[in-house]
Known about the structure:
The complex is a heterodimer. Chain A is an alpha+beta fold. Chain A has helices at about 10-50, 60-70, 95-100, 165-170, 195-200, 215-225, 235-240; strands spanning about 70-75, 80-85, 105-110, 120-125, 130-140, 145-155, 180, 185, 190, 205-210.
Amino acid sequence: MKLDTNSNLYTFIYASVLVIAVAAALAFTAVKLKPLQDKNVRVEKMQNILKSIGVNTTPDNAEQLYNKYVTDAYAVNSKGEKLEGVNAFDVNLKLQFKAEPDKRVLPVYEAKNDKGETKIIIPLRGKGLWGPIWGYFALNDDYNTIYGAVFDHKGETPGLGAEIATEKFQKQFKGKTLFDGDKFVSITVYKGGKGSALKAGDTKHGVDAISGGTITSKGLEAMVKDDWLFAYKAFLEKNKK
Amino acid sequence: MGKNIKLLTDPLNLNNPITVQILGICSALAVTVKLMPAVVMSISVITVLTFANVIISLLRNTIPSRIRIIVQLVVIAALVIIVDQILKAYVYDISKQLSVFVGLIITNCILMGRLEAFALGNKPFPAFLDGLGNGAGYALILIIVSAIREFFGSGSLAGFKIIPQGFYDFGYSDNGLIILPPMALIIVGVIIWVQRSRTRELIEN
């Protein structure tokens, strides 16, 4: 008997079988490869943390160097109190970003660089134009001066917003301070091309935005202010020297 | 047998998907700044196209004609997602550089074009060769364009510095313009020009 491949019943059955077969194949691949992919994400996170204190790594030696330089990792709440029993490295920042600021679990890393200076590393999380942006501030042990900054993004526009991930943009943050006297002001991003922060007279807390990347730059400013970093205010104030 | 070999070699020149059929241009512009991502992208497209061609060719007598486009898309999409997952697991750096473009292989016109025009009407082995040939034709152009762009744009090939430091000391500098997408289009245009002026069959009246 020849099957009528154009009958409705055949079409329905064919589509169902095809979809189930494909779904099974995809689920199988995803489950099999998940551990490897997770490891890549962890390694990348370690590389970013180390980059903020000026240590360059390759994916192969990241874990080893991370264990060497990072001396402590813990989480605090918005009142600056240390939380017990939290694995800081595995805190999901995406979920914390969505939570109310006073309910957030905020990871903090402590590291010692080659000169033996202690650096405090604060992870950052925010919104860019097309998707999430994130990064790390490494602070000197005065909990105020920025020693290094690293930013990365999921899918900002190449050549424009994506420039936040470049050395050129990030090195502007070095030496800037989060506090003005006792007031927590964080960093302001100034629009208008190179030298705008200087023109505005804000050499201590200002950096130049990325031309053509205004929304990403504004997202980044919100990240180091109300959206995210302000939740760390109490913690920083408590330890500030 | 000669016919089968033609299936493999035609897309490299006379029937090249990019320069003659003008398909798959978008990704050819986007991922050709550096050689390595272009190579990985090429391998991904060859893999997806070959497998999709064979699978559709095997199924060709069973596919209900009313939903054949959907069936083709499901097959392509599944293969692309599998390739994307494998890249994320094994070559994470490059998969980050390629970002959305691996996913966009799904919409690459070369794939649907070959499935609809060839795989639906031919046996698996010719379909396999056709997939391989068209994938290779796409890869060939991608690799030529990316090699030119990386050499003149960054002074390197596959990440290795080719232009010696001495040149830079004498005031040579990399051409930033060639990194930008419009230059890829112009390079593809030049390749089409060279190819047409050398190949009589392609010259229209």
